[in-house]
Amino acid sequence: MKCFSRYLPYIFRPANTILSSSCHTEANVLPSGLLPSGQNKLGPWCSPTGSPAPLSCETGCGEGSWILVCRLLVPTQVSLLSMEEDIDTRKINNSFLRDHSYATEADIISTVEFNHTGELLATGDKGGRVVIFQREQESKNQIHRRGEYNVYSTFQSHEPEFDYLKSLEIEEKINKIRWLPQQNAAYFLLSTNDKTVKLWKVSERDKRPEGYNLKDEEGRLRDPATITTLRVPVLRPMDLMVEATPRRVFANAHTYHINSISVNSDYETYMSADDLRINLWNFEITNQSFNIVDIKPANMEELTEVITAAEFHPHHCNTFVYSSSKGTIRLCDMRASALCDRHTKFFEEPEDPSNRSFFSEIISSISDVKFSHSGRYIMTRDYLTVKVWDLNMENRPIETYQVHDYLRSKLCSLYENDCIFDKFECVWNGSDSVIMTGSYNNFFRMFDRNTKRDVTLEASRENSKPRAILKPRKVCVGGKRRKDEISVDSLDFSKKILHTAWHPSENIIAVAATNNLYIFQDKVN
Amino acid sequence: MFTRGLKRKCVGHEEDMEGALAGLKTVSSYSLQRQSLLDMSLVKLQLCHMLVEPNLCRSVLIANTVRQIQEEMTQDGTWRSVTPQEAGRAPLDRLVSTEILCRSAWEQEGARPAPGLGDGHVQGPVSDLCPVTSAQAPRHPQSGIWELDSPREDRGGFHKSLDQIFETLETKNPGCMEELFSDVDSPYYDLDTVLTGMVGGARPGPCEGLEGLAPATPGPSSSCKSDLGELDHVVEILVET
């Protein structure tokens, strides 16, 4: 890969790694290994059989060098107002956002998601806002700005509510955002808080009608008696405006807190999962949903297990998986019955008796489950590890990666300060060759499934000069601490990376650290 | 003559006790740690009652941990109900049901409260470990963090708090949290730490043993009971001299 080999020392890449001669920027070239059947709606990144694509070595960047592209702050209400005034410059890029250091709790990012092309990046925060960033367009004279994301649209998705029946607040925090594939000029996304899912349409408007008869240019009504001639309104260009409108509100279907939403591959339905139930919705129908999983026991005293995450299979619209707080994953087929309480497959790894403690169950609780892009594997995240499962093998995962095993001896303290309940997410890269997840101290980890190498990087303001190369970090477990290492006892457990996202086809990642959104990309020429 | 006889008896007992004490040391520090974990879990379950609906996953995981501890204590025989009127109940009832523990979290789901789970069950784990605790306290500096400031002759101090916890669950009055813990003077009940969420530094010691040790087998328990009686006797003698 010429772009890598020419520049910058690559600390992890061993000298004898053989890289192919094509670059990931030439993504449009289809590898010859793909089947000619035309089923290639996955793009060039995965062969339909699900085995790692021939291009995986290009995108397998567990060892590559990562540079910071930009650090974005979720704009607060104040900057929101000034944004509206400057709306025509949509060069509202990061400059003014970057320097603001105030951070309220409402700004804490709670979800990050790229859309299907990677052009847009959406974040949701604790204050119920959604901020959408758009990728800077390539231009020949500004090639170095490629990969930067600028604010595209901001809107208030959810408001805090009060449930009068139970005397409880319903938080406006956005738990998940999922994009719909683009079918016309507008963009659609689903956003959800604990109780309500909303479908938002984000569209651009660059023309407006002028020349109404009954209204003047300011919108004031004209007295019909004063009108002597009629004219036809015409559309005239205007400054580009991005508007978001709620198209559907799917409410009152969940007694418990929604933790996941997933769009089906038929693009007509989606599911929402709470602690005990999963509902299937049709996008067009908001007053009905089908309950497809219900694990609520008749007697709540017997409740010992909850649903923690759920996702549809990327290609088979009848298949989905859901994970539980006991470390199990169930795969269900909706063709089998209307209520999928009986699973088709059951994935569970037998417990290691030598590691048993009172915290075994808590740390086995799965916080996230994700299908690979190929649909052949699922990845699960529990407190200390990330596991990759083959759908065809239920009795154990095929790969297990230790994220921060040095915490195993600290579980009691982490239980005391509630950190043991933190829900980390995990993501695949576009070719399913690298997986990424977050940790504490603003660290995040990448694991290359092919080379079995891993790297720990940090998303922090201190080392965040733009275009600076990220230095790999290491946690020292005991004994002598080397110069650049950090000891376990010095880790900051309040700085946790729970949410990350990987561009669907390129090596661009978005990492949410409290109220900061970091965008990194693999070093390109 | 009195002294000589006492000395011999004392020496004999000491020699016998040392072996037993050594065996007890690991077991009782494990019990203390386990008890501390149980207490911490109960506090967490109670604290999960807030203005916003509590996180059900977290509550379930904590409740499962509590249940696991209780089951183990039941196997050990250290979970015994004290009051005689509870003697007629089936053993299963003694396990505090999840519903009671998480009532604040779940009562809005319409779960019916379990019929009169008496105070005796709550007293069980605390009172039974108390003799061990007070006997052990002067002997184990390593478990100093678990030392209770006063010998637990009146066990009322602690179990009263647990009762109040359950009352609070029912009345949904978080305001009485402060007075709830005012009688509890054991240092490991650092409410501030629990509430504000201790960050950073690991706190080794108390919990390391807990995670390292596998759950106690029923083996030592029988020797525990007989040794406890002798231990009391030894302590009395030591105090007198």
UniProtKB/TrEMBL annotation, chain A:
GO CC annotation terms, alphabetical: protein phosphatase type 2A complex
Organism superkingdom: Eukaryota
Signal peptide: none
Keyword GTP-binding carried by entry: no
InterPro entries: PP2A_PR55 (IPR000009), PP2A_PR55_CS (IPR018067), WD40/YVTN_repeat-like_dom_sf (IPR015943), WD40_repeat_dom_sf (IPR036322), WD40_rpt (IPR001680)
GO molecular function annotations of the record: protein phosphatase regulator activity
Keyword set includes Ion transport: no
Keywords tagged on the record: Repeat, WD repeat
Alphabetized PANTHER family for the sequence: PROTEIN PHOSPHATASE PP2A REGULATORY SUBUNIT B
Family statement: Belongs to the phosphatase 2A regulatory subunit B family.
Protein name as annotated: Serine/threonine-protein phosphatase 2A 55 kDa regulatory subunit B
UniProtKB/TrEMBL annotation, chain B:
Key words of the record: Cell cycle, Cell division
Domain SERTA, residue spans: 30-77
GO biological process: cell division
Pfam families, A to Z: SERTA
Keyword check for Cell division: yes
GO cellular component, one term: plasma membrane
Protein name per its UniProtKB record: Cell division cycle associated 4
Phylogenetic classification of the source organism: Eukaryota, Metazoa, Chordata, Craniata, Vertebrata
